[in-house]
Amino acid sequence: MSAQIMESPWLSEATRQFLQRSGKLLIANKWTEAANGGHFWVKDPTSGQDLVEVARATAVDVDRAVQAAGKAYEGRWSRLSPAERARLLWRLADLIEEHAQEFSELESVNTGKPITETMLADVPLTVEHFRYFAGWVTKLTGETLPVSQPGHYLAYTRREPLGVVGAIVPWNFPLMIASWKIAPALACGNTVVIKPSEITPLSLLRLGELSIEAGFPPGVINIVPGYGHDAGHALVSHPDVAKISFTGSTRVGREIMVAAADRFTRVTLELGGKSPNIVLPDANPDAVVAGAMMGIFFNQGEVCCAGSRLFLPRTQFDAIIDKVGRRAQSIQQGVGIDPATEMGALVSETQMNRVMQYIETGKSEGASLVTGGDRNSEAGSGYFVQPTVFVGHDNMTIAREEIFGPVLVALPYEDLDEVVRRANATPYGLAAAVWTEDVRKGIKVAEKLKAGTVWINGYNLLDATSPWGGFKASGLGREMGSYALQHYTELKSTWVNLD
Ligand code: NAD
Question: In terms of DSSP H, where are the helices of 112-197?
């Protein structure tokens, strides 16, 4: 077990104890081993050492979990009143908040990200997500319809739950993204089987413990840690799963959509991105530098909406890029749970190698390196990659493909029409940002950008009320806000002949 983590002065006793309980599957409120006794090791990204051994679900376990969820859906869960279901969601939110320190530590230890970020973003946003959707449980109304058929009818709509929802989540925001799925699914009356990433199951397992404490009936929330190609695939192709809510890569999202087509399983997909961060000539220079940092180095750049393409006006290019480079160089990189750390380790060796491969490709294709470009062994023996800034052009691999790491490509432009065209010239469309002191101009640019979210003078702003999802290859459907509810319900029209 990773000595670096277990002996860390920043780790609370509660987290230390949790890490000593090896992880199991949660099926019908019982912690169980996998049917075949399989396990996998969760690693400490700051040292590469083993951290916790977790039971590894395969198709048999996923089937048990889906059956438990089906039974709960037909049984106790459906008999609870909306107000009772809402109270359970609120109770879970309160419990997560009571254990915020522990969740912040766990998320940081498992993913490598700084605890300052988990305390400010991952955990409070998770809590708010549960509260927001708890509020919707008692407000899922239908309509009466003014139908014109001859005769006398009462016609009305109802929003009905789908049944068992299969949720599959990635490793970059394991707890928060799980809440984006669990909260609306339960709010709409469904039950859930969730598969965390095999790299980062820990915070979700802790949430499972609290879901029992909160009083959720058995089978409402089931957690099956395991690998994508077996547990994930089994969930997606299970005949009793009514809907798959997936966040992850565009490649796997495409596979899931194909698998779902067989049975017309409902799907929502939150996928990758290559988001443009566009600076207009009149932008506030200090805000621009801070925004560029936030856009690409938050969460080590392992962010689906990372502002990985920084478009700068050619006339100001050298001055801004100089400041961006110096600020990037000054980032304090280290162990995530150290409160002084500003940027942590990447999540896994595979991810580090992938990012390093992109950096080498950038160099070999002639991009000019402003800062970084290597691993950071001073920060630790784990998967640390320096904050890296390149100057490049649009057809370089690093400017086209999602790197999912701390690698920025700065690109000069001449005029507004050109930058909008280039910003949109990507298969992705998750997010974009515009920096300007002229808000009218910012809004006009925002209207032309093909992205699910556009920020004007900001970056990485998310809220439970604000819909989240992608245009084009960045996804299908929307999470968050009232918009999520339509993806977790079927709409039924009922006609009553009153004659
Ligand atoms: P990934 O696609 O490799 O894995 C995501 C999840 O899918 C994991 O739980 C994995 O085990 C599972 N999986 C893998 N193969 C599967 C299969 N064949 N069937 C079913 N499940 C399978 O992605 P990742 O590496 O964990 O995460 C990074 C990616 O996620 C990036 O592309 C990033 O842009 C994307 N992402 C998108 C958003 C968003 O909101 N749009 C948010 C976070 C991450």
Answer: 115-117, 123-136, 174-187
